[in-house]
Amino acid sequence: MSDPRIQERLHRAADPLPVDVTGRLEATRRRAHARQVRRRVGAGVVAAVIGLAAVAAIWSLRLGDDATPAVPVGLGGAIVYAPASNLEAEIPELRVLIPGSDEGASSLHPSGGWWSVSPDGTGIASFVETGRERDGYQLTDLVLQPVPDGPVRVLVHDVISAGPPAWGPDGRLAFWSLAADGRSYEILVREPDGTTGEPVIHAQSPFGLAWSPDGSTFAIAAGALGDELVLARPDGSKWRGVPLPEGEDPSHLAWSPDGSALAFTTRSTVPGGQSLDIWVVSADGTDPHAVTPEGSSEGVPVWSPDGSWIAFSSDRDASAEQKAANDAGEPGGGYGLYVMRHDGTEVHRLVEPSEGRGLNSPVAWLTSDPLAPMGSSEPPVALEPPGAIVWAHKGVAGPKDTGLPHVYVQAADGSDEPVEIEDPPWLWSPDGTRMLWEEYRGNQLSDFVVGGLDRSSPVIVATENAMDIRWIEWSPDGNGIAYTVGGEVHVVDTVTGEETAVIERPGVVGVDWSPDGSRLVIGVTDEEGADPGVFTMDPDGSNEELLFDRSTLEVAWSPAGDTIATYSQRVEPKDGYDLWLIAMDGSGAQVLLDGSYPFWSPDGRWLAYTAPDPDSDDEQPDALYVARADGTDVRKVVPDPGEGWPIPWAWLDRWPL
Amino acid sequence: MELDAAVTERERTSASFDELFRELFPRVARTASLVARDPQLGADIAQEAFARLFERWDRMASPEHARNFVFRVAVNLARSQLRRRFAAPFGLSGPDRSSDDATSRSDDWLSVVEALRGLSPKQRTAVVLVDFADLDAAAASQVLGTAEATVRVHLMRGRRALRERLGVPEEDE
After folding, report:
1. Interval B118-128: pLDDT, tens
2. Do B120 and A456 make contact, defined as CB atoms within 8 angstroms?
3. A307 near A258, Cβ under 8 Å?
4. Neighbours of A249 (CB within 10 A)
5. Number of CB atoms found within 10 A of residue A325's CB
6. Does B108 sit within 8 Å of A246, measured CB to CB?
7. Strands A185-190 vs A202-211: parallel, antiparallel or unpaired
8. Do residues B45 and B72 touch, judged by C-beta distance below 8 A?
9. I want to staple A360 with a disulfide (CB 3.0 to 4.6 A). Which of A337, A386, A464, A533 is the partner?
10. In chain A, which residue's Cα lies nearest the Cα of B45?
11. pLDDT value at residue B83
12. Dihedral sign (CA A455, A460, A465, A471)
């Protein structure tokens, strides 16, 4: 039921807005017709990109050319790509490129077209023509071809598909299939036991399908769903559109390995032709944005296994003639293979632009070479430690006059230069879909707020004494925040903003949650009137337990839940502090090393911390290190910056968005 | 014979699209203007939404399906425009934009748009869809892609905030 007063005010405001219905009707028809024509042209482009055409030709890689930027250190794994020569090859091939290797690419030959490499690299699913037709369409079989070798198996007979199949968890495959009406398409899922369920999602003009790594979501690019890009549950029970700017048509969808983001190609019409760009959107459908620049055509994004790079195809180094043809929507070619960070920075060329009309386009990025012989002595190429460390430069003035420090992100193995994060949040939520930030009145910190990555739906979680907050941590499920201030622990519901507990504890500094969110751990100092130590308790302050009786500043509960890292009073002399590990099985605590600000890697195998830098002459020579959880394999990630000191701020299992 | 039938069907289809367009276009355009808080954008957004509807017209199961579809596209585009404008370094909101159109400078428009600014995007959209576009909560939930109960919560909170900002008495609901 409407609210009459509000109804009246809204109509009074908006009804006088002039609208030319007849003129708009004609313009709408023209726009719809123009787009239908563009879709038909676009279908040809997509077919070319996936390389169904074919004549054998050898295309030599020219890595090492003077004009080619060096492949960055730490770029691991194996990139499978379709070479430009497939356009004229009788037998199409896929090449496997080991970044940074001097070896040329090795190749394999998929059985059919619309290929898709399994995430573990052990198989290629593709569609093989049967030679039979239905309703004028060529029938194909969905087949699985083992890699590097083995008998090809038919998984599903007589399919009329519209694009490569999408791998899901546990070997499941989703694919488009022409529906019985002969006009629309539906998504079918082939289970590992050989069965294929009833379709629940139907669409017209399918241009892409990708299945999130955890199996929870289909990303679909197709017409007739209300939006050009849709995120849907595989059972069709819930879906949401991703609003894209007018005229952006998505295709080539690719989930990041942790499922937190989706990269895709968009094609839009511009005066005189078309524009191809790569966009990235968060898994919740928010913040779709372009990551490649205008002025060149880019597409077919494929994520690296650790999520820190995107491989893609681009004509940025093509000849002027080729670029002009591409911009006009003609197949000009000149597409090379490149990698970049998710935000479009640090672009490196891996394969030079094609001379002809073909495209070098990535197909998959695997952790290791799928063609390496079994039992090879070559270890899989992987970054160690994995992911990216976000660190804050404490002790020097930040970018604003607010107390917030400069914040940087860099590969956890220290292989890259740090990149400053502009306007960083205080903390990302554990699932990366929300963040905690600070609000200022003038230059005065006034509130801590949680909300979406675009600062939507803000909920204030701390307002009184925000300036004095010592430590703040998000609960593992993202529904709670715990912080310490003025000798108290506060627990706040991040959905309602309601404070659910205030636990009085003089001297408390550090706080963290157990991995299952059922307990808190706090670190209490030996300041006057305080009862020092490390304590665990329920989030309402009940069932308290003393773990360790030394004065403690910082606490960090390991992802496995079996250990708590602390910054606690040294045995001798007592005015110093060390990084300790407390075992939750009751076997006690031990000093790990001389360090502070312990921070666990997402897999719990590594710790980041701040400690003196013996290579620096500075009076306060602190650097940021990582070490294995047993204290071995110590590596300096951030050297002493001279002024101030670096502290771990977050450890992400991927490059942050 | 078959050709005649096809032509007749196309004409019939075209006529029903035109009919729906003429009936809904002004309402969709103004809804988009309110959601985007921009008097000029509404008609452009509505045109794009109807162009997408036209492409899929033969897939629409009913007039309600078509209506919900076109509102959904329009609302999404309006929100998208809003985000893009706010992301601009010198983002301007609706009432501040220079315009020669008298409507966009009217007190009624300015006060309503300023009041809508204080609502969350979901609250604003829910209120505009129900109290301006005359959709019921069930249809609004289809448009927003969310549960009907959630729409009602957004509606209640949005109306409360809007009443406060517009000075409409509380006891009216």
Report:
1. 888 888 999 99
2. yes
3. yes
4. 24
5. 19
6. no
7. antiparallel
8. no
9. A337
10. A246
11. 41
12. negative
Mean pLDDT over A12-38 rounds to: 76
Q: Which of A180, A228, A172, A190 is nearest to A38 (CA)?
A: A228
Distance between CA A459 and CA A554 in Å, rounded? 26
Contact between A627 and A635 under an 8 Å Cβ cutoff? The reply is: yes
Residue A604: strand, helix, or coil: coil
Look at A226 and B72 and tell me if their CB atoms are within 8 Å.
Answer: yes
CA dist A225 and A244 (Å) reads 13
pLDDT of residue B173: 43
Maximum mean pLDDT: which of A27-31, A421-425, A542-546:
A542-546
Query: Are A25 and B18 within 8 A, CB to CB?
Result: yes
d(CA A50, CA A59): 17
pLDDT(B12) > 60: no
Residue B41 forms contact with A (CB below 8 Å)? no
Size of interface A-B (CB pairs under 8 A): 140
How high is the ipTM of this complex?
0.87
Contact A432, A260 (CB under 8 A): yes
CA distance A30 to A24: 10
Residues 6+ apart with CB under 8 A from A359: A48, A49, A51, A82, A84, A87, A300, A313, A333, A335
Name, of A40-49, A243-252, A498-507, A565-574, the range with top average pLDDT: A498-507
Is residue A259 within 8 Å of residue A270, measured between CB atoms?
no
The shortest CB-CB distance from B145 to any of A4, A24, A241 is to A241
Q: Is the Cβ of B77 closer than 8 Å to some Cβ of chain A?
A: yes
pTM higher than 0.80, yes or no? no
Cis peptide preceding A250, ω within 30 of 0: no
B69-109: per-residue pLDDT in tens?
A: 899 888 877 876 554 333 222 222 222 233 345 555 678 88
Beta bridge partners of A485: A488
Put residue B30 in one of left, alpha, beta given phi > 0 → left and psi -120 to 50 → alpha. Answer: alpha
Q: What is the mean pLDDT of chain A?
A: 80
What is the pLDDT averaged over residues B24-33?
95
Three-class SS state of A545: strand
CA A108, CA A96: separation in Å to the nearest integer? 8
**What is the Cα Rg of chain B in Å?**
18
**Do the Cβ atoms of B135 and B144 come closer than 8 Å?**
no
Is A254:A263 a contact under the CB 8 Å cutoff? yes
pLDDT 10s digits, A388-439: 888 888 777 777 655 667 888 887 877 667 878 777 777 778 777 788 887 7
First-to-last C-alpha distance (Å) of chain B: 59
Residue A130 Ramachandran class (φ > 0 left, ψ -120 to 50 alpha, else beta): alpha
Separation in Å, CA of B11 to nearest CA in chain A = 14
Average pLDDT (A7-35) is: 82
Say yes or no for a CB contact (<8 Å) between B39 and A17. yes
Compute, in degrees rounded to 10, the torsion defined by CA atoms A399, A404, A409, A413: 120
pLDDT, position A53: 24
Task: Give the pair of three-digit tokens for residue A645.
Answer: 């000191």
pLDDT of the residue at A535: 96
Alpha-carbon gap, residue A501 to A58, rounded angstroms: 69
**B142 interfaces chain A, CB cutoff of 8 Å:** no
For the stretch A35-87, pLDDT in tens is 544 333 333 333 333 222 222 222 222 222 333 344 554 577 889 998 888 77
CB atoms B34 and A21 under 8 Å: no
Q: Is B172 on the interface with A (CB under 8 A)?
A: yes
In one letter, which amino acid is A241? G
Q: Are B51 and A35 a contacting pair at CB < 8 A?
A: yes
Check the CA dihedral B58-B63-B64-B69 and report its sign: positive
Q: β-pairing, A645-652 with A635-638?
A: unpaired
